[in-house]
């Protein structure tokens, strides 16, 4: 069962667990979040594992100051102005991911953008004390209501995580507002703790709101997504001429010796390790120049469900504009 500590006595223990690669439930002004070191892919995988029935949607990165944010995302003038006015607070900015940014590809789900927020209170102190950006979705099982108290987290995730930091009731109680600046327009991706009217007052212009189903307004909504340039062939039983191989476990499929390049998600068959390495290994195989990537079967239980979900998106026909539903995983705090 999770240890519960009041936030005025929890920082040292929370830092110890974060640096050890373990998730910790922490309070913010919006809702409680399940926090982990955003630079550590296996730590991030443990978030999805604890939440159950995982989907590798992008996670918001929480920072302690602008210096940390600037190492991760590239700010345009409008985004910088919004950060100056609304940070710290419940506003998330979706920015281009900076080259060499110290975050795991699992946090961004392999995308070229990253959501960044500077929270108030304990989560910011956690990032400052560890020196690590903090990735976190809401601290609840997938599909359940986002928690606004430590007791709500305990009732749901208490047996799956080592520590819950009790900061009392969340003052805002809904997730952060998410906006993205693109081509000079500021698009509202999700309403939340900062009212759209407040942002519009600062901008002197209305936010862009897409019609439902007309445009893709948030990461991870297309069937064809996370796709390399090479075609992806799932559940392969053999390697064909000219193919690269995305392997899993200690045993290889037929003709594996013919692969032009090989990356193994986990030689030992560990699904957490496989989740942490998925996007990096796909990118590495894509760079080898193979026309196709053969993927060995990956079990579907636990984190395997999320791995297979992302592999299926990578293998989907290019140009498929079907929009799939977003679930609670994008409702980060």
Automatic annotation (TrEMBL):
Residues 8-194 form the YrdC-like domain. The keyword Nucleotidyltransferase applies. Belongs to the SUA5 family. The lineage of its organism: Bacteria, Pseudomonadati, Pseudomonadota, Alphaproteobacteria, Hyphomicrobiales. It comes from the Bacteria. One of its GO terms (molecular function) is L-threonylcarbamoyladenylate synthase. This is Threonylcarbamoyl-AMP synthase. InterPro entries: DHBP_synth_RibB-like_a/b_dom, Sua5-like_dom, Sua5/YwlC_C, Sua5_C, T(6)A37_SUA5, TC-AMP_synthase_SUA5. It catalyses: L-threonine + hydrogencarbonate + ATP = L-threonylcarbamoyladenylate + diphosphate + H2O. It is found in: Cytoplasm. Its EC number is 2.7.7.87. PANTHER family: SUA5, THREONYLCARBAMOYL-AMP SYNTHASE. It comes from Aquibium pacificus. Keywords: ATP-binding, Cytoplasm, Nucleotide-binding, Nucleotidyltransferase, Transferase, tRNA processing.
């Amino acid at each position: 069962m999770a240890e519960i500590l009041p936030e005025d006595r929890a920082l040292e223990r929370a830092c110890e667990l974060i640096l050890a690669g373990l998730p910790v439930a922490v309070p913010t002004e919006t809702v409680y979040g399940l926090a982990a070191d955003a630079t550590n892919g296996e730590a991030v995988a443990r978030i999805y594992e604890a939440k159950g029935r995982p989907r590798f949607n992008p996670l918001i990165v929480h920072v302690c100051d602008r210096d940390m944010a600037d190492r991760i995302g590239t700010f345009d003038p409008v985004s910088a102005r919004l950060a100056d006015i609304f940070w710290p607070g419940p506003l998330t900015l979706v920015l281009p991911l900076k080259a060499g940014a110290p975050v795991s590809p699992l946090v961004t789900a392999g995308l070229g953008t990253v959501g960044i927020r500077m929270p108030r209170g304990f989560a910011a102190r956690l990032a400052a004390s560890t020196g690590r950006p903090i990735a976190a979705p809401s601290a609840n099982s997938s599909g359940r209501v986002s928690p606004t108290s430590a007791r709500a987290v305990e009732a749901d995730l208490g047996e799956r995580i080592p520590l819950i930091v009790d900061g009392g009731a969340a003052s805002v109680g809904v997730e952060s507002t998410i906006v993205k600046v693109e081509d000079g327009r500021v698009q509202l991706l999700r309403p939340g703790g900062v009212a759209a009217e407040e942002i519009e007052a600062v901008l002197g212009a209305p936010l862009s709101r897409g019609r439902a189903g007309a445009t893709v307004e948030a990461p991870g909504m297309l069937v064809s997504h996370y796709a390399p340039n090479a075609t992806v062939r799932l559940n392969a039983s053999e390697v064909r001429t000219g193919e690269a191989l995305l392997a899993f476990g200690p045993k290889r499929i037929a003709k594996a010796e013919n692969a032009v390049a090989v990356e193994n998600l986990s030689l030992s068959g560990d699904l957490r390790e496989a989740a942490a390495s998925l996007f990096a290994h796909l990118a590495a195989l894509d760079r080898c120049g193979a026309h196709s990537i053969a993927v060995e079967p990956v079990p579907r239980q636990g984190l395997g469900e999320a791995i297979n979900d992302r592999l299926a998106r990578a293998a989907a026909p290019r140009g498929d504009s079907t929009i799939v539903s977003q679930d609670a995983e994008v409702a980060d705090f």
